[in-house]
Amino acid sequence: MSEAYPTLFSPVTLGPMTLRNRIAMAPLTRQMAHADGTPTDEMAAYYARRARGGLGLIITEGTYEQEAFQSRAYLSQPGIANAAHVAGWRPVCEAVHAHGAKIVIQLMHGGRVSDPRVLGGAPPVSASATQSGGWTLYTDNDYEKGIRNIQGAWPKVTFGQARALTVEEIHAVADGFAAGAKRAVEAGADGVEVHGANGYLLWQFITPKTNLRTDEFGGSPENNVRFARLVGERIRAAIGPDKAIILRLSQDGVDDFTGAWPGGTAYAKAVGKALAGSDYDALHWASFNYLDNRFADDPTPMPTVIRRASGLPVITNGGIADGAQAEAALTSGAGDMVAIGRPIFAHPDWPYIVRSGVPYPWLDFDRKYVVQPPLDFGLAYPTGLVDPGWPLP
């Protein structure tokens, strides 16, 4: 066995959770749940296959935590909002644990970038009364239509005008995250990740561009992060000290792929300081390339800045595709773990391949691995998906 990457394949502890190595599977949108949000056997097969490939940690796709406050974001998005969802997640967690990996369920609220088809006619909610100029992922795109074998009209679906949450509602949404976290633990998860990145609700509070508030939840980096801290506090109170809580952060979003924080590393440092002493056991930096901080005046990688300022362990994601890149991220101080996304879609055995030290002909990423990944036929079949017949808007 190669010893080329000793840091990558050493154990790591995040709060109460000890992992066999420093490789996490990044959370990646799947849209393979039943129409009512219940996880499917296909999801169990998908996650089990990656756990069997040698991962230390699986961070699941974004999962809505409650039915209230328009928290759903996607068609066929999994939920952890009721007892049926808990029952659906339980075999997923059991399958992952059977292969020696840990699993955290990512709790996500779509906020202003929720697909209007899942909101039941209600407006989306956000930090402020803004409207995203983007559109729902995987619509109005001939390539996506082709690889999903969709026939006929396929519309471009835009986002609606959001209304601002009141302070009372902010607390209620935080309670919803806590209730979802408690259900995740009931389903067998080793903890949860709170999605504060990529354009979704907590990101809309953390990012000054979308947070126009003048109360205690806006107006400064510390206030912008206050909602995320509140969510962490409520979750910790609900699940206790023995399960992990992670917070995901990013500059960009699904409707703002080139987004950057004002002030660059100074804003990142303020965010990190605001999270020091919080109830989170670790932070997770999400980007297309963690080395590109989009701030010319200071090239320090954002995860390095946040790690130093917060004093918390950091999972680093973006631009890491092989063992050498992963080891460099860890030994440079840019993270305590790495999260690998697209390469693990294409290569479920990525950890074992990397650890072998043998040169490997990596496949280029292709969205076919998102739409129909290699499956473990002991758990599911490719024909197991049922078209929910979502109506056109």
The main pleated sheet reads as: 8 strands, parallel, barrel
Coarse structural class: alpha/beta
Please give the share of residues in helix. 25-40%
For this structure, what is the CATH homologous superfamily?
A: Aldolase class I
Binned strand content:
5-15%
List the helices and strands in order. Answer: EEEHEHEEHEHEHHEHEHEHEHHH
Number of domains: 1
Which architecture does the CATH hierarchy give at level 2?
Alpha-Beta Barrel
| Number of helices in the DSSP assignment | 12
Euclidean distance between termini CA atoms: 54 Å
CATH topology: TIM Barrel
Report the count of strand segments. 12
Tell me the radius of gyration: 20 Å
Which spans of ≥5 residues are poorly predicted at pLDDT below 50? Answer: 371-386
- Mean pLDDT, as a whole number? 90
Looking at the structure, what is the overall shape? globular
CATH class reads Alpha Beta
Strand order of the largest sheet: 3-4-5-8-9-10-11-12
Keywords: Flavoprotein, Oxidoreductase
Domain NADH:flavin oxidoreductase/NADH oxidase N-terminal: 8-358
Protein name: NADH:flavin oxidoreductase
Pfam families: Oxidored_FMN
Written description of the protein model:
There is one protein chain. This protein has 393 residues and is an alpha/beta fold. It has a single domain (12-384), classed as Aldolase class I (TIM Barrel, Alpha-Beta Barrel). It is built from twelve helices and twelve strands. The strands form three sheets. Strands 3-4-5-8-9-10-11-12 form an eight-stranded parallel barrel, surrounded by six helices. Helix 6 runs parallel beside helix 7. 53% of the residues are buried.
